[in-house]
Structures are given as structure tokens and as C-alpha cells.
Amino acid sequence: MKVLVVGSGGRCHAIVEALSRSPQVEKIYCAPGNAGIAATAECIAIKETAADELCAFARENAIGLTVVGPEVALEAGIADRFKAEGLRIFGPTKSAARIETSKEFAKELMQKYDIPTAAFRTFGDYDEALAYVKAGTLPAVLKYDGLAAGKGVVIAETLEQADEALKDMLLDAKFGQGRVVIEEYLEGPEFSLMCFVNGHDVYPMPAAQDHKRAYDGDKGPNTGGMGAYTELPFIDKADLDYAMNNIMRRTADALVAEGAPFCGVLYGGLMKTSQGIKVIEFNARFGDPETEVVLPRMKSDICSVFCDVADGRAPSIEWHDFATLGIVLASKGYPNSYEKGFVIEGVDTVDGSVYHMGTAVKDGKYVTSGGRVMIVVCKAPTLREAQAKAAAEVAKIGCDNLFHRTDIGDKAFK
Ligand code: AMP
Ligand code: GLY
Questions:
Q1: In this structure, are residues 133 and 182 in contact, taking their beta carbons and an 8 Å threshold?
Q2: Tell me, what's the pLDDT at 150?
Q3: Residues 408, 376: contact at Cβ < 8 Å?
Q4: Which of 22, 234, 297, 357 could be 372's S-S partner, Cβ–Cβ 3.0 to 4.6 Å?
């Protein structure tokens, strides 16, 4: 089978690598891909949001399966386009993807179907929103109701910070014209539970933990994710059963009931609070960097899993029971402004997987070309060993303009 992967980051690199292990995959295309993916897949110069062009490419090249990485492609209606033409695609329709693309839709769905999440209210008016924050307690959690590339959530410790964020979101339309969800502040360890979903059918992957803040000790600004690992000692079988029954299955059922059945990866960003497990956010796709630590553990043929789920059959999914841990190398300055074009040495010497996030090739060498540049993922029988190995392997990568966190996985041992 020929397959097409849509996207360009580390997540897509991990999907491409997993597909390359499948004996039934004859050729992998990636649109647009990146310099690392190009070693395994043929990268084609079509933007991930160009649904019509991608659809035409899939038709003309007899693609048997298309897998979608990023949410922007889902919001552009790529799954709707493919389905209308009878082309097999693994990814939700635009309507089902609202679980990620609209915070207001997601929160209202959770409220209606009794899916545990932080209490909330939605505002379109700046004065009303500010009055609500003033009447409540701090910190205030403010979420822009739309895609904002990970920058749409502000945890305001002071009224001044809340005011500034509300001005950005409601008066200055920094991310576009939208509304704001203001929600209760929750505390507890966070984890990501990704599931393969088709309609009412939900199949979990191993839970992972992302590290969203830029610096050690969860300091600094929020990022796209600075590292991740599996397994999580603080999440036991009872927690997973609860999350599957009361959150993931209930959400899949709710989307069917709302006339927007979900097909693809439903990602629960969950928090284990003293009042039980609650939803922080949903995503309508594989998480990044969780995918890079979860997919290496898949023992089954991922191409069969994608096709079975997309076609509504029950997949056979088996996992290796080793631990994985990934450390992201990011450009100095990220998530704010940063320079590009620094030579990266030593990638070939790493004993582990290196998934490229933002690289390019210049004069035959890899150079930095994005905020998050690559992730080094190691596996080992225990998390401690995976952590030590990843630290040793990441040190083999030489570049003048990269930084990384040194505490990925530490929360597992607290
Ligand atoms: P989100 O993009 O919704 O996942 O939010 C980004 C990060 O903000 C999350 O990973 C949490 O660490 C934090 N966060 C979001 N909502 C809440 C909340 N209600 N209470 C506490 N922290 C939150
Ligand atoms: N790791 C968080 C995300 O994929 O949105």
C-alpha cells in the first residue's frame, strides 16, 4: 500500500517511522515533511492545509491510506474532502475536530454529557469578562476560543495579567475575532491519554506525560512541549479505567449523539486532581511530543491499526512494555524569537530515535530551522534507565544554538 502522511513535525516523523516498519507499506509520501522525514519518506511540496491539492495527490497516486498530523489540516476540512471522494483518511471531520478547535464547543459538550472538567463560563465582551475575573479567585485560567498555536491559554496570577490577556484576546483580537472561556484553576499531575477512535469504539494507547514549560522545574513560558515519557507510575489501572469510561468513551459517544462522530486520535489532556481525573483539554489528533514516545512502543502493524480504525473494524493493538523518554532540543529563545541556520552535528551517533521537528539541510548538513528542532527518544526496561540513556544520547548532539530541559521524567519519581 502507498500511504500519505500530512504534516511536518516530530509527530509526523514518528508516524512515518512507525509506518515504515509495516510490511504492507510499499511507499510513504509526506506533505510537506521535513529534512529528517526525507530519509524515510518522499516529501512533497504541498501545504498541510491545501485540502484540495492533497486530495488530488492521493487520487492520482493511488494512496490507500492518508494519516493527518496537525490540527490546522483538520480545521481546513481535509477529512471531509477525502471522505467525499471515497478516499481512506485517518483523521476527524472539521465538525468532529471542534473538540479541539473550539474550546467553547468542547466545554459545552463536557457540561452536557457530564464529562468531568473545570467549571467555566464563556465571554465575548471584555468588560463582562474582566468583571467575572475580579469577582472570582486567582489564578484565573483564560482560554481563547480557537486555534492559537499553543499560545491561547493564560494562567493569570494577578488581575493585571488577566486584564492584559483579556485585552489581547477580546479587544485587540490578537489571534482573530473570538470569545474567551474562563475556567476554574485545577491542580494535580497532568497526563495525556491518546485513543484510536471510530464512532463509539475507543482503543487506548499508553498514557504519556508532556512537559509544556520551557525550562527545568516547570519554569518559563508554555511551549509546544519540551519532552515526554511513558509509563506513568502515578496513574494506576483504576485511574485509566475511570478516564476511559467517564471521559474518553463518554466523549466519543457524545460526539456521535451530536451528529459529529469522531474518527482518528482523540487526545485527552487530563489532570489527576484531588476531586478525581478531569479534562484540561481535548485534541483531535496525535499529541506532540507524546507521539514520539508512544508509537515506538507499538508492537502491532500500525498500518493495519489505521486502516481497521478508519474502516470501522476492531484493530488488534499490542504494546511493548519497555519505558520510553524523549528530550526536545529547541532553539535558544524559543518559544519567543530565535535565530535559525545553526549546524547540527552528531545526529548519526545517537543510539536511539531522533525525530526531526524543525531542521533543514544546508551544504549536506542538518541545520536548525524551527523553534523545536528535534527530539531524542530512548527506550529501556525501566523509566530510570530510559531517562539516563536519553540524557547521555542528547549530549552527543552538538549545536551552538540549542537548549533542552534536564528534568524530563523527574515527576515520575516524586
Ligand atoms: P491547554 O492548552 O488547555 O492544555 O492549557 C495549557 C496548559 O495550561 C495545561 O497543560 C495546564 O498546565 C494549564 N491549564 C489549562 N487549564 C487549566 C486549569 N483549568 N487549571 C490549571 N491549569 C490549567
Ligand atoms: N503535547 C500537547 C499537544 O500535542 O497539544
A1: yes
A2: 59
A3: no
A4: 357
Q: What is the pLDDT of residue 148?
A: 65
* DSSP of 78-111: HHHHHHHTT--EES--TTTTHHHH-HHHHHHHHH
Residue nearest to atom 4 of ligand 1 (CA): 281
Q: For residue 401, give every residue at least 6 positions away whose Cβ sits within 8 Å of its Cβ, in sequence order, or none.
A: 331, 332, 338, 339, 342, 368
**Ligand 2 test: best mutation among 209, 288, 328, most atoms within 8 Å of CB?**
288
- What contacts 176, CB < 8 A, 6 or more positions away? 146
What distance in angstroms lies between residue 280's CA and the mean position of ligand 1's atoms? 6
Q: Which residues of the chain have pLDDT under 50?
A: none
pTM: 0.95
User: What are the φ and ψ backbone dihedral angles of 37, each rounded to 5 degrees?
Assistant: -60, -30
* Nearest partner of 311 among 70, 24, 83, 104, judged by Cα: 83
Looking at the CA of 283, name the nearest ligand. Answer: 2
28 CA to centre of ligand 1 in angstroms: 35
Q: Please check whether residue 268 is in contact with residue 207, taking contact to mean a CB–CB distance below 8 angstroms.
A: no
| Helix segments in 136-264, DSSP class H | 159-166, 237-242, 249-257
Atom of ligand 2 nearest to the CA of 228: 1
Give the cell for residue 261.
Answer: 462522530
